Amino acid sequence: MSAAVQQAPAFSPTPSQLAVAYSVCRSIARSSAKNFYYAFLALPKTKRQALCAVYAFMRRCDDIADDDSLPLRNRRQKLADWLDAVHRALLGHPTDDPVLIALTNTQQRYKIAPELLDQLAYGTAMDVQESPADSRTGVSAPHVQYRTIEDLRVYCYRVASVVGLVCIRIFGYRDRAAEPLAENLGLAFQLTNIIRDVKEDAVMGRVYLPQEELEKFDISPSELHSNGDSARLRMLLGSIADRAREYYRAGDELIPMVDEDSQPALWVLVTIYRRLLDKIAACDYDVIKQKVALTTREKITILGKGLLKRLG
């Protein structure tokens, strides 16, 4: 936290300011959270608003990190400035940023440790690293971000496990055993995202598959954004998927541990992501030639089953 940030009298937004702020966050989540938003819809209104606020905060972090119109050093500075603004808002300084207004209200209502929000931002900052540039074109070449599976796990913890810890504070839980389960479920989600987005990330110059795993299967980073048919890559992705499936088991244990009114939403989220991984496996992990995703109809069907669980 910036040394310049000092405790200030608590800023209390008006009900109308809060309503507008949460409406903005809901619009951000609806337009960007392709899988998460369906789970949000199965929550009571107050919890749904809270998750939208957290998502909007994360979206702002991601948008800054992914802004290729800015040099990396400028993105890092912009992330630092954004996090400083978050700290100031959490300390009670006035703000007119609707995301910060909603986030601060959510943080106070659900007693979310500010350190968890910091961890989310730090995880995003791990993406803002220098990568080798092609000497001829000046375009960033695919750059392996992490050496080992454990290195990747640190990244996944910050950008996904911490999300799980924030979510269960909003969902509500009493048993501390829920926390490691939420962490593992976050790992499952992030590994699924990494498998799905291998080509898209490589085009952006990012390779999340660990170097030791690429070497084990004799795969070069350049293969990850080509349209070639790589049986070795499919084998590697299958091994990562096996790890994700182990982590998904945490979801089965976690669902009954959160508050009853949140269980359908968590079920929807786990089911959507599990179904996505199953769909990728059914395509023999061919994520280079195609972007695998659930259809809107498939997600609405899952949501409908979740809402029935809530009504039941």
What does the model show?
The chain is mostly helical and 312 residues long. 64% of the residues lie in helices and 1% in strands. The protein is built from 13 helices and 2 strands; from the N terminus they run H-H-H-H-H-H-E-H-H-H-E-H-H-H-H. It has helices spanning 15-32, 36-40, 45-65, 72-90, 98-109, 114-125, 149-171, 178-196, 198-203, 211-216, 231-254, 263-282, 296-311; strands spanning 143-144, 206-207. The chain has a two-stranded parallel sheet with strand order 1-2. Helix 8 (178-196) packs antiparallel against helix 11 and helix 8 runs parallel beside helix 12. The longest helix is centred in the last third of the chain and has 24 residues, at 231-254.
| Biggest beta sheet summary | 2 strands, parallel
DSSP helical segment count: 13
Q: Please state the oligomeric state of the protein chains shown.
A: single chain
The fraction of residues assigned to DSSP E strands is under 5%
How much is the average pLDDT? 90
Alpha-carbon distance between the two ends: 45 Å
Low-pLDDT runs of 5+ residues are 1-5, 133-139
Structural class: mainly alpha
Please tell me how large the radius of gyration is: 20 Å
Give the H and E element order. Answer: HHHHHHEHHHEHHHH
Largest sheet: spatial strand order = 1-2
- Overall shape: globular
| Total beta strands | 2
Helix content: 55-70%
Q: What are the main properties of this structure?
A:
single chain; 312 residues; mainly alpha; two-stranded parallel ribbon; 2 strands; globular; disordered N terminus
